[in-house]
Design brief:
The complex is a heterodimer of chains A (125) and B (372). By secondary structure, chain A is of the alpha+beta class. Chain A is 20% helix and 35% strand. The longest helix of chain A has 9 residues. Chain B has 372 residues and is α+β, with helices and mostly antiparallel strands. Chain B folds into 3 domains: 141 residues, Probable tRNA modification gtpase trme, domain 1 (Gyrase A, domain 2, 2-Layer Sandwich), CATH 3.30.1360; 96 residues, Aminomethyltransferase beta-barrel domains (Alpha-Beta Plaits, 2-Layer Sandwich); 83 residues, Elongation Factor Tu (Ef-tu), domain 3 (Beta Barrel). Chain B has 8 helices and 20 strands. In chain B, the strands form 4 sheets. In chain B, strands 11-12-13-10-4-14 form a 6-stranded mixed sheet. In chain B, α2 packs across α7. The longest helix of chain B is centred in the last third of the chain and has 13 residues. The radius of gyration of chain B is 21 Å and the shape is globular. The chains are: A alpha+beta (125), B alpha+beta (372). The interface between A and B is medium-sized, with 13 and 16 residues. Chain B: The glycine cleavage system catalyzes the degradation of glycine. Chain B: It catalyses: N(6)-[(R)-S(8)-aminomethyldihydrolipoyl]-L-lysyl-[protein] + (6S)-5,6,7,8-tetrahydrofolate = N(6)-[(R)-dihydrolipoyl]-L-lysyl-[protein] + (6R)-5,10-methylene-5,6,7,8-tetrahydrofolate + NH4(+). Chain B: It holds the Pfam family GCV_T.
């Protein structure tokens, strides 16, 4: 599995796109999606709410377990992926594309986000 | 869990070549899923699935008093089982608590194979050995003598027929006969844990890979796929089948679990737990304990084992197993609830899902029943 080079990654297995007009897209990595198994329910943060880097902001349910969703950055949620709400399997089939979770207006970004290569090493090990 | 290395089945290399996600199950390194567990589940419901169940614990009981020993050691009437047939039964403690649920095959007049859950195999072996004192019968640990493959799903008879001369049409549910499948000697049993028609094939470990490959080849046109333990769990949950450690435990008698029918008081033999079980039966009659029911979610959040079942702000039960149901398209659960709330359609029942009371409908088990 390959992690797109243009994204950055958290140790909680979220990815973050470069911000466009201050708004970045967040999802979970393919590694995380594979570990979860079939995602059947995604509880995403409310649009307009503020998420805080490193804190939980939702949950993903799979057949076997429920996992917290962590915010990789601090900021206001501007949009959630309604396609994932209605069809959570997108998280498994296209974690880096159609399975994105929410968009956030970045107020503050932690310094310890990983590059694709750093995340690959981290998740391998 | 234990720090000892995980045991690997005879099919371990096959699972790894298929890219399975593996999991520790009762000390065994077992395939959890190969791809999507939902797809595997639906394949078993609509076509066929192939499982490695070699972690199950086989114990052979032989000798002139094999039947008498089992009638003493287990709650069922094993002496009444015809050669070639099988029974679902239980082994209980003296106080009536369930040590394990079992399938017992009568292979010959004087030979039975007891199949225990992997997590309880040693406990069952020890109990049978201890209870065999004074009987002219031998209890043998055959866990390493067998690999166990299962083919489950509506296409499974058609697939198996291409690989064996055995008379599958006359092989009834809960029956087993020796035969040859794909050139491999096997005990062919029409049993399973999925709610579908299907077969379990007990073979020598050295033959397991050959049989797996033969079944894979024979089943490919019919849509057979390899299936892991994750979908096995959702399949048995939809079928309302109990799982030891969830619906069954030493803290419950068969009557507490709604399975009092497996206790055969009519048999002649005195059996371990008889007195306590007779009391448990009377208690269940007069003062119904919590009842095992089905719950179907109105929403999409999934109940998990241990979550509280609530009504009117009070805890009225506990979830024992829960999962998203691929067949129903909604989360489902089995739960023990107070008798007052156990009737199908009881209003106002919910599950406390991490602090939120989510509404659930009480239904009769099973959630799913195949069309014959």
């Amino acid at each position: 599995m390959s992690n797109p080079q243009q994204l950055r990654y958290s140790k909680e297995h979220e990815w973050l796109s470069d911000a466009e007009d201050g708004v970045a897209t967040v999802g979970i990595t393919e590694f995380a999606a594979n570990a979860l198994g079939d995602v059947v329910y995604a509880q995403l943060p409310d649009v307009g709410s503020t998420v805080t880097a490193g804190e939980t902001c939702g949950e993903l349910e799979s057949t076997k377990s429920v996992s917290d969703l962590y915010a990789p950055v601090t900021g206001e949620v501007t949009e959630i992926n309604e396609d994932v709400v209605s069809d959570p399997s997108l998280v498994n089939s296209a974690p880096f594309e159609g399975g994105w979770l929410f968009k956030v207006r970045v107020a503050e970004e932690p310094e310890d986000l990983l590059t694709a290569d750093e995340y690959a090493a981290f998740s391998a090990g | 869990m234990s720090s000892s290395p995980l045991r690997r089945t005879a099919l371990d290399a096959v699972h790894r070549a298929l890219g399975a996600t593996m999991t520790d199950f009762a000390g065994w390194d077992m395939p959890l899923r190969y791809g999507s567990e939902r797809d595997e589940h639906l394949a078993v419901r609509t076509r066929a699935g192939l499982f490695d169940l070699s972690h199950m614990g086989e114990i052979t009981v032989t000798g002139p008093q094999a039947a008498a020993l089992l009638d003493h050691a287990l709650v069922g009437d094993l002496g009444a089982v015809a050669v070639g047939r099988a029974r679902y039964t239980m082994i209980c403690r003296e106080d009536g608590g369930i040590l394990d649920d079992l399938i017992v095959y009568r292979l010959r007049e004087t030979e039975y194979m007891v199949v225990a859950n992997a997590s309880n195999a040693q406990v069952v072996l020890d109990a049978l050995t201890e209870r065999s004192a004074g009987f002219d019968a031998e209890v043998r640990d055959d866990r390493d003598a067998y690999a166990l493959l299962a083919v489950q799903g509506p296409e499974s008879p058609g697939i198996l027929k291409t690989l064996t001369d055995a008379d599958l049409d006359s092989l009834k549910y809960y029956a087993g006969l020796p035969g040859t499948v794909g050139g491999v000697p096997a005990l062919i049993a029409r049993t399973g844990y999925t709610g579908e028609d299907g077969f379990e094939l007990f073979v020598a470990p050295a033959d397991a890979e050959k049989l797996w490959q033969a079944l894979t080849d024979a089943g490919s046109a019919a849509g057979l796929v390899p299936c892991g333990l994750s979908c096995r769990d959702t399949l048995r949950l939809e079928a309302g089948m109990p799982l030891y450690g969830h619906e069954l435990s030493t803290g419950l008698t068969p009557f507490d679990a709604g399975l009092g029918r497996v206790v055969k008081f009519g048999k002649e033999a005195d059996f371990v737990g008889r007195a306590a079980l007779a009391e448990a039966a009377a208690r269940a009659e007069q003062n119904p304990p919590r009842v095992l029911v089905g719950l179907v979610a109105e929403g999409r959040r999934v109940p998990r084992a241990g979550y509280a079942v609530v009504a009117g702000g009070e805890v009225i039960g506990e979830v024992t197993s829960g999962a998203p149901s691929p067949t129903l398209g909604r989360p489902i659960a089995m739960a023990y609830v107070d008798a007052a709330h156990a009737a199908p359609g009881t209003a106002g029942v919910g599950v406390d899902i991490r602090g939120t009371h989510e509404p659930y409908e009480v239904v009769a088990l099973p959630f799913y029943r195949r069309r014959k």
